[in-house]
Specification:
By secondary structure, this protein is an alpha/beta fold. The chain has 6 helices and 5 strands. Strands 2-1-3-4-5 form a 5-stranded parallel beta sheet, sandwiched between helices.
C-alpha cells in the first residue's frame, strides 16, 4: 500500500510540475551545451582537476537528468574551466525508476553498485583529481549508498557532496552515513515532504533550481580546500 500510495503521489506531483520542468529542461540545454542530458566524460577516459559524479532524480532521462544536475555541472565548469571539470552521470543499472525509492536505502542494489563503480573508476583513472558529487531525490539516496561504503582511500578523495531533495535526510540526520558532515550540503525545502523521512512528494520537491548557485559555491569551496 505504501508503494502504491507513493507512486500515485509522485505521478500527480510530476503532472503538476510538468510545465516548470519543461522550462527547466530548455534552460538546461542552453547551459549544459549538450544535445541530451547525458555526460560520460569520465568513462570516455577524461581526467581533470575535478571529477563530478551525479545521480539524477526518479523519472529523469539520460544519466544527468534535466533539472539541477546539468546546471550544477555547468556551474563547476564556469567556476574552473571545461578542461578542469569532468562530469559523469550515474547510468547503467541505475534506471531512476519510481518503485526503486521504496527499496531499502532508497534505491536498488544495482544503482548503488553502479555509483560505487564510478567512484572507484575516478580514483584509479584520475588519482590526482578531486572528486565531488551530488544527487537529486532518489539520486541523493544513490550517492549516500555509494559514498558511505567506499574504501577509505577512495572516500578520502571525495571532497564534497550536494544533495537536493534528499530522500534520506531525516534517516541520516542531514548527512551521508560514515562521511564527514561538514563536507555535505543538503538542500531540503520546508515544503518538500520527502525530506521529513516519508515518501511524500509535494510541490516543494521541485523547487531546487534556485539553489544551484549555492551548491556550486559549496563544492567550489570544498575543492579549493582539498
Amino acid at each position: 500500500m505504501k508503494i502504491t500510495a507513493y507512486l500515485a503521489t509522485m505521478m500527480a506531483a510530476l503532472a503538476i510540475a510538468a510545465p516548470t520542468q519543461t522550462m527547466e529542461a530548455a534552460l538546461t540545454k542552453r547551459q549544459f551545451g549538450l544535445g541530451s542530458s547525458t555526460s560520460n566524460e569520465l568513462e570516455e577516459g577524461k581526467c581533470g582537476k575535478v571529477v563530478f559524479i551525479w545521480a539524477r532524480a526518479s523519472g529523469e532521462g539520460g544519466n544527468m537528468g534535466s533539472s539541477v544536475g546539468p546546471p550544477t555541472c555547468s556551474g563547476l565548469k564556469d567556476a574552473y574551466s571545461d578542461d578542469d571539470v569532468v562530469c559523469q552521470g550515474v547510468g547503467g543499472a541505475y534506471t531512476a525508476g519510481l518503485s526503486q525509492n521504496a527499496l531499502p536505502g532508497g534505491s536498488s542494489s544495482g544503482a548503488f553498485a553502479e555509483a560505487t563503480r564510478l567512484f572507484n573508476l575516478a580514483a584509479t583513472q584520475c588519482p590526482e583529481s578531486i572528486i565531488v558529487t551530488g544527487g537529486y531525490s532518489q539520486g541523493s539516496a544513490v550517492i549516500n549508498g555509494a559514498v558511505s561504503k567506499l574504501d577509505s582511500a577512495v572516500q578520502s578523495q571525495v571532497a564534497g557532496a550536494v544533495l537536493y531533495g534528499y530522500t534520506r535526510n531525516a534517516q541520516n540526520d542531514g548527512g551521508i552515513e560514515n562521511y564527514p558532515k561538514d563536507q555535505v550540503k543538503v538542500f531540503c525545502a520546508v515544503s518538500d515532504g520527502v525530506c521529513g523521512g516519508a515518501l511524500l512528494v509535494t510541490a516543494g520537491h521541485f523547487t531546487y533550481a534556485g539553489d544551484v548557485d549555492e551548491a556550486v559555491e559549496f563544492l567550489s569551496a570544498r575543492i579549493d580546500a582539498a
